[in-house]
Write the structure tokens for this entry.
Amino acid sequence: MKGVKRGACEKIHKRVSLRAPAVRDGGSVAANADVVEARVSGGGGQREPEVWGRYLGAGLTWAVVTLVFAFAGLWLDGRWGTRPVMTLVMAFAGAAAGFWSMLRQLTGPGPGSGDGDR
């Protein structure tokens, strides 16, 4: 990446300074720590549980659905003697269903889905 200039990267990416600004005009160290925290976290607006809880719930839904389908496939394999065919089929089907559910949770209803307002 010798041809890439440093200025181009600085224009694209936000620079983050981890050094506290110098204390001026009798400012406190705590005020400086707040400034550093705001710079590092991007303002701190993304820390509410509603924001990260939505993503955590969607990911857990995907994992749980995949596991439930995989165990159902394992049970079917035991009953039908087809080990590991149904386990693999059901695990992939569960992963697909869980991904679809996660996608719906995170993006909302698509246009013309008939769900109306959620």
In short: Residues 49-107 form one domain.
